[in-house]
Specification:
Layout: H1 2-20, H2 29-35, H3 40-67, H4 70-90, H5 94-111, H6 114-125, H7 132-160, H8 164-180, H9 195-208, H10 210-231, H11 233-239, H12 247-269, H13 274-294, H14 301-305, H15 307-323, H16 328-359, H17 362-394
Length: 395
Amino acid sequence: MEVQRFKKNIKVYVLFRFFISMLIIGPILTPYMLFKGLNYSQIMLLQSIAAISVFVFEVPTGAIADKISRKVSLVMSGFFIALGTLFYIVFSSFYLFAIAEILFGIGLTFASGADSAILYESLDKLGRKKDYQYFEGHASFYIFIGQAFGSILSGFLYKINPYAPWWISIVNVLIASLIAFSFTEPSKNKSKHKYLIHVFKSFNIAFKTPRILWAIVFSAIIGFTFKSSFWLYQPYFKSVNIDVMWYGVIFFFFNIIAVFSSKILVKRYYDKRPRKVLIRLLILLSITFILPAIFIFPFMVIVLSLQQILRGLYPPTLKFYINHQIKNEYRATVLSLVSLVANLSFAIFSPFVGMSLDSFGMKTTYIWMGTVTVGGILVLTKLRKIQKNKKILDK
């Protein structure tokens, strides 16, 4: 009976991830914010506020998932995201949008770590934890398919009514909250420590485990560079005179590439060394910043679309790498810590992207983003060499 419940968890996980990710506002998000009277600097400042919100709430909500209930954490996620979305529909004030981003941040942190932890532990109970990457990729496959068709719908609906994609998104995330009630939470060794001690021990484990430390540094680099890349699409589309109506169609093809990445490439690279895969993805990201800045033409959207390979491949690869290193009583908190670092990095540096777009334009911004990504690759390579040398000396 218990085995059947854990098998059911896998199906519920796929459904939950699908609906919690069906915010179909992606293609029209920047045009909508400009429509609401914001400039690029304000847009990126709002994203910084969202990331700071995630930074503040990431570990506390991860600890709640570890110490109280992962199911409750997932249920709360959809409600907070829906409320933040509603603020964007009803109001037109930068300050109220800031509150909306805080609500978004809380909602995202309730799901971050808790969803992947419940999947990993269900598979562990079934003796199938090695299949974790496959099921992460499987869930992402359906998400990207849904977002692909949602993107087309979003672009055309926006031309009819700018608010329609937002209302549809609210319904989707509330459905996710209802689905979360169907999870059977695996029994686990809960940390016996009080909250603050539990968080401190999780931090200690993360920074004293070389592989986790490497993952944290990687997360900081990709947290800024890859998260910022989304907000650079619209300025590029505008610079090559692509009408907003076609943004949804472009995002459809972006999502198809993400589908390919999550379905085909995850299988192709699941038994490869995760660090090598992650470094190669950063190399690809640097190319997708630099080439479009050199050749400013509509067809360079094809090069930009290669960033979707990262979207499909890096999350399951990184999560599997981290999950494999930690005990289950600290799993959600350590996963949340890695996500926290990514969001802190984005929070600190993303406003510079907005200021650069407003002051220097798209081309300069793309070039220095590519340079930063190359610098990150060098830092990660050097860190790994230092860790290897230290391991040799400690023997």
